[in-house]
Design brief:
The chain is an all-alpha fold. Helices cover 77% and strands 0% of the residues.
Length: 47
């Protein structure tokens, strides 16, 4: 989200947006780590 487009947004809304973005980023990182583990296990099975 661009700073220019957030001028009309209240501070509370911006805080919520920031929190949600942080949670989404954390979940994505956790999923990426899980998929990396799965890939590693699959490669070990194939060997």
């Amino acid at each position: 989200m661009h700073i220019e487009s957030t001028k009309g947004i209240r501070k509370e809304s911006m805080l919520i947006y920031t929190e949600v973005k942080t949670i989404k980023d954390k979940c994505k990182q956790e999923m990426d780590e899980k998929y990396m583990k799965i890939d590693t296990l699959n490669k070990e099975k194939m060997v």
